């Protein structure tokens, strides 16, 4: 299926007819009552907007999509970017149009949302045992033969729950299930290949399920690029490869298998350890696709991923670029060396590092619900009340969920960037 057919452009385009109102945080009152399309037609200056604000950089998003698409193609793997990062169908469209094979999601509700925008190939990187969700899936698969769906399972209880719910729903199409292999002290996933093999056998014995591959999430096994961390990730990925070979040798697959891994921290190791399994024509066994599920790359950051990603200037000739920034205004100077900004935990991510001031000297040392504590030397007289501070941010996954409409600007480095679009999120 061609990329352009994987999502409904008309439905996404209809988002631009949305009427802006005061429920859309920090958009100017001048925009209320107008459609997105009408409001951004003249590229209003960012200075028209209120603070706090989160913005995206359009050219950097395009750059990151292109870099990752080229990198994956050259590595011989497919991309199924994790859509939970942005929950923004307009951005999913840009990724799919660049050649991404599918969109990955984390919950059945997210899958349902994606289906409402016509996404036709989805990987649910999670187990699905919710009977209501499985009933919906059974109907959706029956009504839409073009819809291609994958989910995960890591234990016999998952298979039992799926079989019962699908049987109760009168399912007519089999559900593709990928066996999730985990690691010690990791997150979900069968902890041994023996346990994983039992899951695979249960899938093949089911009248409602089809064994579709093997995969998991290596990012749960390390949080840095230390030698022990990289060794743990590499060893885990080797176990995924070995388990796929075991299932292939046993003839348990149908006519196609998926091997999938990859967050946005160790995609280089995924390629190093798994890319050789790709065998699209099945010349060495079952036809196999290696699928990378990185999600944060489209936005990248100035914090966690700027340090750990393999696609940064010190590790790559074609690095990713931070495509999101926070903007906050100094509202109080209650004591020497301290400024309070009007952005806090309700506005900016903080779970993988605090915001980083980029337009003034200083350090953000804490966030309250609606304030940031900006500290600098007592003798420093910068950042008087009213100053707007540009902030580098860490972890896009917990930035987008705080905003319904996110302005897209043409250049975060200019004195007063122009807003060229508004991205609608669904959280």
From TrEMBL:
Q: Record's InterPro entries?
A: D-amino_acid_metab_enzyme (IPR051466), D-ser_dehydrat-like_dom (IPR026956), D-ser_dehydrat-like_sf (IPR042208), PLP-binding_barrel (IPR029066)
D-serine dehydratase-like domain location: 323-410
Top-rank lineage group of the source organism: Bacteria
Cross-referenced SMART domains: D-ser_dehydrat
Which Pfam families does the record cross-reference, listed alphabetically?
D-ser_dehydrat
Designated name of the protein: Amino acid deaminase
Q: What is the lineage of its organism?
A: Bacteria, Bacillati, Actinomycetota, Actinomycetes, Mycobacteriales
